[in-house]
Please model this.
Amino acid sequence: DVKVTQSSRYLVKRTGEKVFLECVQDMDHENMFWYRQDPGLGLRLIYFSYDVKMKEKGDIPEGYSVSREKKERFSLILESASTNQTSMYLCASSRLWEASNYGYTFGSGTRLTVV
Amino acid sequence: AQSVTQPDIHITVSEGASLELRCNYSYGATPYLFWYVQSPGQGLQLLLKYFSGDTLVQGIKGFEAEFKRSQSSFNLRKPSVHWSDAAEYFCAVGIKAAGNKLTFGGGTRVLVKP
Model:
């Protein structure tokens, strides 16, 4: 069964900490995405990547960075966590030119709480 | 830029009753259209998708959606709701020319009464 795996389901971090959220896919997909999900706001795109070492800003990149050193792994980094980054974070992947046609495969999400 | 609107934030429906979730999109041409479902504490699962052709699309779990070009809508329906359908539902559009990404609506949370 093909999968997108997010390393943590729940995380609690302190304000100012550097936080790493990890995502791994086993489908050999080129595209990988990081979204955050907040009540009433739906899913908002933070960053995406269409190739190793390539990244593009999404709609809300401020306060975040990403790393893609290997095709299967896409990491989201909160440089200095703040309470307004408390949210559900969803990772997704797709084939390079098929996101629009076939949609994404999503991970189960990481619920991050910053205290 | 394209946008997706789901007018209903919450819907409560009795078990066995019918369900309709609304989705409207804003884009000049016909986009690719998707419905996803998110069960509590889970990621999103694809219910169905529309590319072209027959405007009535069948999906998993007994759901269907109808594309209406004149209304820029892609509403999701289920004739008889089960308690396990309690979840949040997201409509999304994909436009290859817009960078091969999906744009999501704000979601509709469905509560099912016994």
